[in-house]
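Work Package 3 committed the consortium to producing structural models of liganded targets before the mid-term review. Because experimental data for this complex are still outstanding, the team generated a predictive model from sequence and the ligand definition alone, so that downstream docking and mutagenesis planning could proceed in parallel. The input record is reproduced below exactly as it was submitted to the modelling pipeline, together with the SMILES string for adenosine-5'-triphosphate.
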Amino acid sequence: MRRRIEDNVALSLIWGGAGMTILFLAWMLWHILSNGLSHVSWEFVSSAYTTIGETSGIFSMIVSTIYMVVLSISIAAPIGIMTALYLTEYAKPGSQLVKIIRFCTESLAGIPSIIYGLFGMTFFVVTLGLGFSILSGALTLAILILPVIIRTTEEALIAVPQSYREASYGLGSSRIYTIWRVILPSAMPGIVTAVILSTGRIIGESAPVFLTAGMVTRIPESVLDSGRTLTVHLYKLTQELFTVNEWNQAYATATVLIILVLAINLLTKLIASRFNKAAY
Amino acid sequence: MNKFDVKELDLHYGDTHALKGINLPIPEKKVTALIGPSGCGKSTLLRTLNRMNDLIENVTIKGDVKLEGKDIYQDRNVAALRMKVGMVFQKANPFPMSIYENVAYGLKAQGIRNKKVLDETVETALRSAALWDEVSDRLNSPAFGLSGGQQQRLCIARTIAIQPDVILMDEPTSALDPIATHKIEELMDELRKKFTIVIVTHSMAQAKRISDKTAFFWMGELVEHGDTEQVFTAPVDERTRGYVNGDFG
Ligand SMILES: Nc1ncnc2c1ncn2[C@@H]1O[C@H](COP(=O)(O)OP(=O)(O)OP(=O)(O)O)[C@@H](O)[C@H]1O
Ligand SMILES: [Mg+2]
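The resulting structure, written out as tokens with the ligand in place, is given here.
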């Protein structure tokens, strides 16, 4: 009888927790979407931002966001994947260098992102003279996402069955060939996940981005131009919410961000399941 | 003529003394069975023959392992050694690729790209592994779709494809049912004509059926070795007699 009651209590707590999570998520989504969706139009998405007139849009922010994502990932992914490969396939487990790298990635992961912004601003923007630019921003964000990429990739590599390695080395193949033909393909879903998690992170950051890439609302013509990402834009908009129109713009931008993030999540699932099938 | 000559071989995993002063000749184009209770060092010895122990941390090896008179631990070219001394593992471990790609893997790793050479080698290897008739119409389908026994024969084919002199097998049938086991044993009867085979097995019956030579290990020591016939019917050592009669183990 007591067991019964305990079970029921536990069950209702679990259900309560799960229900609460869903409720909050649904509530927040509904709040943003119901306020924003009606203001998202083709025009809003495709026209330039102006502070005067009615047809202000977010096109340049979308472009800046895409630049930022692509550039940060192309800097961080190769470095992160190579590091993870070094840690799992080359380094002796427990060696001094491995410990140092682990310590670095763990510490990096725990640092508040604004500190990356501060560092990026002094180092990339000023010292290297890259100015407030997409490049400065991407370099800063690349450091910021490196721990996630290394960790997630490492986990994916560790999960590759040891028997694949034995089989490959047993046939006299080299380490590079084994990595290329067997290990990387098997770890691919994990690596894709790493990249997509980082994409979400890049899209979501504001402080380290505007401290390094600035807030210029024009479409950047090169990576050395400043640019304003969607999240930075939303941050900026929320700083000065006076008119109804400004509120509407903020909600509409938030809506676009949410749709973007949901789309990325969906894409992750899709790609991961593709890879799972491809790997039989 | 001996293919391998193991002399005074000592192997430690960290502090564990896994092989103690092993002296074992392994004759060419014969089947040598390694038997003994669990943990006595059979797999360890097998894996010294193609230096698979190199993949494990903290292994120290003393003594000689000579392949055709040359010490394999002096020669730095481990890849060449492993092409000459192929290995089949306890659990079939095909790659997550097609049947064709699995068999062609070793050749491609050597940089061979010629389609005709690859096709021919894949067919020959699959025929030698008695698998061709079962898979010839689905070479491009995933290897994981094969049964356990077929997968193990695929792994044998994959090893044959690199044209080794020696095939090492670590309990190749322990995960298979009697029929699949029988197929592999039949196959080994063919393979013994072309290859030197060293097999670890827990089955006395299997050792008796398929091997020419038997070596009995006991807690890291090689207790006794000789013709299979003699080891099973007239063992010299007390422990061997106990083990082959099934008194313990
Ligand atoms: N990677 C390893 N690290 C440390 N010790 C090991 C390792 N592999 C094997 N050993 C130890 O070495 C000894 C011999 O192991 P081995 O695997 O060669 O035995 P085996 O005769 O093949 O046993 P089984 O019949 O169970 O496969 C055992 O005591 C085992 O615990
Ligand atoms: Mg074993």
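Reviewers should note the following from the model. The longest strand of chain B covers residues 2-13. These observations will guide the Year 2 experiments.
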